[in-house]
Amino acid sequence: MELATQTLTDKPRDAYYWRLFATAASFTLFGLGGLCLRLLVFPLLSCLPGDAQQHQRRARLTIGRLFWFFINMMQRAGILTYSVEGAEKLGRPGQMIIANHPSLIDVVVLIGLVRQANCVVKQSLWQNPFTRGPVSDAGYISNDGSIDMLDAAAGALRGGQTLIIFPEGTRTVPGAAPAFHRGAAAIALRGATIITPVVLKVSPTTLTKAEPWYRIPHRRFHFSLQVGADIDPQVFASQGPAPQASRKLNDYLHHYFIKELAEDEQSQQP
């Protein structure tokens, strides 16, 4: 997989109307692609020989390849540039990948890079006709906040899967610090072999919780992904009962991301 770092050279409001059209076309294609996967591609894949696990692996590989194609299509259309640092450390058995959530395409980038990963995704995707088929066939886990969700996520890790999770549960509000829910830390303590933080940054901000897709920035945005150092969950598991250990791990992760994001903001100031 080629992970070339793209160079940002846009002028203010460079090709604004083209980027607006290309953004609309990209998300239309994304929705139609999800429907095509549900109605055509996955039914054909299900006809291939193999057990349920092999079918699930094919579904995840298909989604991952299409997601990475989608990101590169957006890059070639002039909507975005991207940089990836440390992707070779992702995708290990029992690894929980914890990421902040600044934009709508965060999960697309991560699944595009880690194609056999499981992922905790928002529950509404199971009600969306464009995404219900892909998330179901890939065996992704619904973030419904239930005990069953925690059990399924921890079980996936104990079974040797890589798990992607966004502890915020939803996209970060622009200008606000990320707020982590403790569920991710509880899952990590129950099942993860290793925790790997991934810091995602989008500049200028776009596709955030507070912005509709058509409110594009004055120039194409840059998406950066930086993989941090591994964290051993057992260091926190030994610090007391499960609720206390979970709180300490969650606080550690929360402060880690706040620090990393604050350093980035300071480096951009004149």
Can you describe what's shown?
This is 1-acyl-sn-glycerol-3-phosphate acyltransferase. InterPro entries: Plipid/glycerol_acylTrfase. Helix 4 (132-137) links the parallel strand 3 and strand 4 (141-143). With 270 residues, the chain is an alpha/beta fold. 36% of the residues are buried. Strands 1-7-6-2-5-3-4 form a seven-stranded mixed beta sheet, sandwiched between helices. Helices cover 45% and strands 14% of the residues. The chain has helices at residues 16-45, 52-76, 106-113, 132-137, 147-158, 183-191, 233-237, 242-268, and strands spanning 80-85, 95-99, 118-122, 141-143, 163-165, 194-203, 221-227. The chain has one domain (16-268): Glycerol-3-phosphate (1)-acyltransferase, CATH 3.40.1130. The chain is globular. It contains eight helices and seven strands; from the N terminus they run ααββαβαβαβαββαα. The two termini are 36 Å apart. Helix 1 runs antiparallel to helix 2 (52-76) and helix 5 packs parallel to helix 6.
What is the compact description of this entry?
With 270 residues, the protein is α/β, with parallel strands linked by helices.
